Amino acid sequence: MTDCFADDDALTGPVGESEADAFVRGICFKTGPPRFVGAELEWLVHDLHDPTRPVAPHRLAEAAERVGALPLRSVFTIEPGGQLEFSSSPAESLTACVDELSHDLALARAELRTLGLALAGYGKEPWYEPPRVRNTPRYDAMIVYYDRINAAGRNVMCRTASVQVCVDAGHEGPGPLGYARRWRLAHLLGAVLSAAFANSPLLLGRPTGWRSSRQACYARMDPFRTLAPPEGQDLRAAWAAYALDAPVMFVRTEEAPWAVQRGLPLREWMRTGRPRPPTMDDVAYHLTTLFPPIRPRGHLELRMIDAQPGEDGWVVPVAVTAALFDDPSASETAFRAVKALADAPSPHPPPRNALWRRAARHGLADPELHAAAVACFAAAREALPRLGARPEVVAAVDAFTERYVERGRCPADDLLDLAGGSGGPVGLGGLGGEGARP
Asked: Measured between alpha carbons, how far is 117 from 113 in angstroms, rounded to an integer?
């Protein structure tokens, strides 16, 4: 933000609609040859010895405090339900990204073990209803705003976890590394990634009917800020219109609580200047309250992947996504594989359209998504050595492909196997302990 203006007055002075439109267009896609990759890893926190037992708020608070005091390389934050998030720096290679996050997760896991706790890789809490434990003016206002619509927003804020992968927007020109192609690829490949890595099929130990209940929740949230923008030739103009037409969640004030709004598009706020004149800082902050499946923040932030099982399960979606975007050959193969998925007509954009709903409900049991996933994972596997991926990363992708992709399965199916055999709520039995899985 500070790079865009010569002085602070540009941030704090009243802003007009045309200025805001130009600002959003100027920052949404920063183009150039793809160089960087990043990841944001969210984790649920479970009791180390009995993952089905709710973790008391005071234990979650101590966990956050202890992990936050560690010498971490990534940015560490705490989500409203006590989820812990580790956000990497922009890395110039997949290896550098994996190394940074692996270092921090090893420190965090060791610290949590001393508290009898563990990081848990599920897209949505499968065993119990976690309380909201993190209170800030932002989160307080978001809860009020979302609760006016339905319970989906609260669920996403307090009960879900994800692997978010960030890749560069791409360059201005055509071809597989051009930003227009990468944007299109992201919205088709996103359904394949959602299906392949679906890992949230349970609520209170019982099947929900969705492989990714987390993605189903996103599809039910405020459609003005969680759906993809309309397709168009001018991506910057389309995103700017989407942002300016989205309702303002709240107007920040020096003291809490912040004033939650109802039916106030950002564009209208700038036209009326009520309840107070907006500033460019308000415009920038408004952008942080938009949560479509792919969010342009200069780079592309892919938000549709559930948190993954095991200590290193997160490495696979990061590696596969990076390979399919940043290796030209793999990107071209992936685009050809997913292009046919766009042929099914739907009146809704992702994640409410038919393709994304099939991905969330069926995972790779859907034949078309399965075929696309097989082609995409094969292309990623070929590309990883060209990107300098270490043998252990390649081995992790191979293992995931063999266990899930080739068999038309996803991690959610492991939990559903337990549910089908139990006749009731799924119990962990011998699954207790960090990193344990069916």
From this structure: 5
